[in-house]
Amino acid sequence: MDEGVLVTGLGAVSCVGSGVDALWRGMRAARSAPVRVPDPLARMDHPHMYLVPEAEVPAGPEGPAGLPLGRASRLAVEAAREAVADAGLTGLAGVDPRRVAVAVSSGMGDSDLHERRRAGGPAGPDRWAPVFPVASAVGAWLGAQGANTCLSNACAASGYALSLAADLIRSGEADVVVAGGSEAYSRVGLACFNRLGAIDPERCRPFAADRRGTVFGEGAAVLVLESAEHARRRGAKTVYARLAGTGWSCDAHHATAPEPGGAQIERAMREALREAGALPDPGTATGPGAVPGAAGAGRLGFVVPHGTGTELNDVVEVRTLSAVLGEAAPLTPLYSLKALLGHTGGAAGAFAALAAALVLHHGTLPPNVPVGALDPECEAPLPTAPTPVTAPYGLVNAYAFGGNNVSLVLQGAAA
Asked: What is the DSSP letter of 260?
């Protein structure tokens, strides 16, 4: 376990509103629904998403050198603004900017700028702008002079960004890393998944018997990670959690489908749990008297799964969780964040990690959005009432096209 990487600030913008407080309220309310995208050129079977309310999308800022920024970059800067303020680092007062890094991911970047221009949409800035300025926009706004990178390995991207952030801190390359992910509506992206037949016609309902695909969501989630020494030296006011373990792997199997046996998914989970010291005890208590998420059910209190609502993905993940957790699996509750926010693509791993940090901080797993009867092939414990969490660890999974897998383990700050 590495106790040296702490989560000291959080920021989010999602379909349930702007700010981490709005996200936590949304998680506790367990209600949301996708809406039709306001794009007359979205000529596809299922043109719906979990969109950020228009009033919550910031108009600025401009990008580096005055370049225009698309929706994803603007959402990322807004989430970073909240996270940095939450960490008490506004203006980087008293912090060496050369020791502050940025790792912010996106699957589609600022595609909206280019899609509008090429389709003759509403007039926008005449200047050309890069498609993936998300991390550089955050770094420029913040004045961070350390490493700056935008990872883009699809839906695992922001999980990898958080793992990279931890590596930068552990290696001594940075004291603080602003890390996360951002995703916004892309006509091309949504149309491609419609052509794949991978969009559910109703809503995102992972693990449900009648699920028919995923539904995408917009948003940005940003976490401030810093070394424990740096946080103590500057007197950080809040520590939400520790990033205690990370694990990467690649299926090397198929461009879009997970490897059905889940071998590399299992490897990533086990590596993250082993690094954190959170592998289930062989003598895990089971039976009618055991309490889900409690200490008697093992050291892992909950899982925020990748579960997207696609048929094979959900089945492989639940089967692999059962293999990894053993007797603890039916007692370890899952929190399906995508049922609330939709699949936020390149931001999904960061949203899951942020949600896990909030669960550990509050000591409560919010109710899952009801998805109906569960698929017998992937029945998972999805409590629809608030559940106390007393075990010290939470597991986060994020998977992607190309077989990219990442698992993260967060530990409660008081553990």
From this structure: T
On whether the CB atoms of residues 287 and 193 are closer than 8 A, the answer is no
How distant, in Å, are the alpha carbons of 47, 95, 99 from that of 190? 7, 41, 38
Q: What single DSSP character describes residue 259?
A: P
Q: What is the pLDDT of residues 8-57, one digit of tens each?
A: 999 999 999 999 999 999 999 999 999 999 999 999 999 999 999 999 99
Asked if pLDDT for residue 1 goes beyond 50, the answer is no
Give CA–CA dist 380/223, Å, rounded: 28
φ, ψ (nearest 5 deg) of residue 317: -65, -45
Which candidate, 284, 376, 369, 374, places its Cα nearest to that of 331? 284
Average pLDDT over residues 208-235: 97
User: What CA–CA distance (Å, rounded) separates 163 from 184?
Assistant: 23
For the chain, how long is the longest CA-to-CA vector? 66
State residue 156 phi and psi, 5-degree precision. -100, 0
Instruction: Enter the DSSP assignment of 368.
Output: P
What are the two backbone dihedrals, phi and then psi, of residue 295, each rounded to the nearest 5 degrees? -60, -35
Question: Is the bond preceding residue 61 a cis peptide, omega within 30 degrees?
Answer: yes
pLDDT tens digits for range 94-129: 899 999 999 999 999 999 988 987 776 554 566 778
Q: Chain centroid to CA 38: how far?
A: 25
Dist. CA 302–CA 367, nearest whole Å: 12
Does the pTM of the predicted model rise above 0.85?
yes
Q: What's the CA dihedral at 4, 360, 331, 294 to 10 degrees?
A: 90
Q: What is the DSSP string of 17-73?
A: EESHHHHHHHHHHT----EE-S-TT--SS--EEBPPPGGGS------GGG----HHH
Decide if 249 contacts 264 (C-beta within 8 A).
yes
Distance between CA atoms of residues 57 and 59, nearest Å: 7
